Structures are given as C-alpha cells and as structure tokens.
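As a warm-up, study this chain.
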Amino acid sequence: MSDAPQQVRVLCDDPLDGPRNMARDEALLTRVGSGDSEPTLRLYQWNPPTMSLGYFQRFADYDALEPPAGRLDVVRRLTGGGAILHDRELTYSLAVPLGHALLSDGPRKLYDLLHQAIAESLKPLRVSAERCGASDDSGPRRGPFFCFERRHEADLLVGGEKLAGSAQRRTRNALLQHGSIVLGRRFDQHKSAAVSTDAKEAVKHLSIAIPEALSRRCGLDFVTGIWSRWELLSAEALRSKYASVEWTRRT
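Now compare it with the structure written out below.
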C-alpha cells in the first residue's frame, strides 16, 4: 500500500441557479458513493439569488415570507437544517465515501474540521470567527425558519452572529456535507454576520485558502480538478428534479 497522501479533488464552479447547483451536489454524492468519482470538495455560488430550503422544511413557511426574500427563486436541498438565502456568499460541498480518512473520527467531527479550516482561512481577511460551542433546541421541523438564526455547536460566529454553518446528508455509501459562508448582506430578513469585504476578492481568496487549510489539518492532498463528462451528464439528468414543483413543495 502506498504511503502517499490520499487525494481530494477540488472543483471551483461559476455561479449557477439553484436546480443546477443542487443537482451537481447530488450527482457527486451518488457517484462518489458508487466509486465512480473521487472524493470531492466543491466551492460555488448562486445566480440569481436563491432561497434553499432544508430537506424537512415546510414549503408553506417559505410561501408566507414577506418580500423581498419571499419572492426569490427557491429550491430544496438534500441536506437538513433551516433555509439559507444564497446571495453574496460562498457555498461548499464535500462528498466522501463512508470509511474515508476524513470520517475516521466520525461524521460529526467533519463539521469541526471544515469550520476550523474556514476560520483559519478568514484570518487574512481580518475576520476572527469563533466556534459557537453550544447547540440550541432547533431540529428538522422546529426552530427559526432561517438557518443563520439557529445555533449548532460547530457553527462559526462573529460578534455573536452566525457567519458559517453546515449540514449533512448520508447515504449507505457516502456522505455529503454542505455549508454556507456569508460574505455580504443585502436582505435584512436574513440575519447573519458577514465577511464584509469585496465578495469577488473574498471568493478568490477562500477558494485557495480553504483547500490549503484542510490539507494542513488532515494531511491529505486537495488538488484542483475538473468535472468529467459523465458527472455533468448525471447532474443534468437530476436538474429537472430540483426544478420541479413536486420536489420543492414536497413537505
């Protein structure tokens, strides 16, 4: 057996709409689980601004929102948690097979690993983010509508406000962890901290700094890669699911 570090592919996508973003995440989860794709860290943004609902959230709660947030495009995620308003932010997803080295300490430790890497990566931007340390009583169907008004012990806070949070989806063969880092705020309804610097420069910096920080922390090689033709075909086949009324309004 080789002693070389295991490799995790890094994909940096251009901004996409909600159905395409969610379809790409599911395609990675499925293909990584089947062994057809390598473990992958994906970094991406959204265009147009989009509300993503947690897997278990009621669509009626979104439908009752006042404008402007209540009139944005909406999509439902595979992962749980509260709603996220994706606008001036950076989203990540990490898909790994069960049994991967990143899960050696258990799936819950993956939250800490990613958030520690994010906090380290934010320091050059003069942002000091700290781990929340305590969870509230929010659950799949209870708690504030917005994810950034909920609290999980691993969340990153700045000045008591949430800056980054994550959620997971596990299958029989793989795990997907999905998280959001708020760079700036235009919608008062979505209360959160923000990096508060030029969003394009922040994305450019974090897209390099986060994989580097993860590599230092876990001893794996995070290497920039590209989508395969088969992955993109798989994602395109899933796009209609996430664009459908049936999926979006499923609960």
